[in-house]
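Section 5.1 Outputs to date
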Amino acid sequence: MAFSRHLCLFLVIALPGAIASATDIYIIAGQSNAWRLGSLAGIPGEESGSILYFGMACSSRPEKAQLTIIKKLHPSISGAGLAGTLRAKARKDIVFIQYGVCGSSLNDTANWYPGDNPAAAITNDEGLYQSFTRYLADIRLQLEAEGIQWKVDGLFWHQGEADTGHDLTTYEQNLRNLFWRFRNDLGENLPIIAGHIRDLDAASRQLNLAIDAVADTDPLFAVVPLDGLPFESPTDVHVKPAGCIVLGERLAEAFMKLQRHP
């Protein structure tokens, strides 16, 4: 997660009353590649439409959120492809929420595991999902205090690398259950867009097939490939910042296509 270690980043910290009305709210969640896809920074200057950014550290599980207003997006930061494309599509201010936790899986109760049957109220409320919902509740309070209506327009998901070392027979059902919880909490017609994980072995291929199987039966879910993207090393699962920009553009384009042709 050290891709920005030597990059001087300029952030514009929010001041009370400085928020303009924004109607498009987006979330990027998952594990470390999601964190990269959600990492933003600003540089001096202004562009059309600000980004109301709620960022976090990849090793943290925050339940309180810090708002940063970015007037001009750093073009080389790894989240620029996703957030920049979404803002260009909206042609106004957008809210961009990052919640990617390094190494998190769907396999255990400490992480994203949603419970055996959330639709029947059999949920796991002790792990990462609970921290995530508290984080969103804090953001909602902040936005509504500024007159911004809470309506999440899209959720972007990238996760799975941490699960390839576990039994994958339940991954597909866990993913379906997690998406059910997202929509139950954030809106029943919430579009969700995910990326594949890197194809390194049979386990990663099996996990990608599970993601595709969910997409085959979920008309509000789309998946994008990682074809041609650069990684940190020949065996590393992490997409390089330049590759994250391209992947973010693909995710945003898939979201727009899903909106046009649900």
